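Hello Y.,

Per our agreement to keep a running log of every chain we model this quarter, I'm adding this entry. I've kept the format consistent with earlier entries: sequence first, then predicted structure.
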Amino acid sequence: MIVLSYTKCIQILLSRSSVPIARDFFTIHQDWPLLQVNWHPTKPFHLVLLTKKDSALRLYSLANPDFEEWSLSLPNSPSAGLSMKDPVVAFVLWRESTFLLQEDSNVTLTPLTPHTLPPPPLITHPQIDDDCGNEAAVLLILQSSPCVVVIATTSGMLSHCVYLSDENETVC
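Predicted structure for the entry above:
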């Protein structure tokens, strides 16, 4: 299966046919760039879209591709009520949560439910050097035990850490 983007409309190629996803949404919001699309890990034939302008995740089903089943406002969106320094640029769906990558390389793990405010960024040891002028671009979660978080920057630098969680704080 291949995910394509053209004229602000996503098309999914399934057995030589295509299904436009969120056509009405992108017709109304033509100036809202689409940053990323992922299959939902627990809902078959569902896609999650990340839009840049409003920094929101949106869930669509291939059965009803123009109906938004839910949306999740991310930390830097006006509707989230939080003010964070840098926008979310990528996400990875993991179990019933999502890892959010901000442009400054901060990573947040938040429940994948609408109307939930994300917690603060994960604590990294050692701290990721954000003075190097690189913008985070891609997030990868290796499905190992414990899981490994990998961040790629626009300059090609890779940072990685092991995700550990205890009762008091989440450490990466």
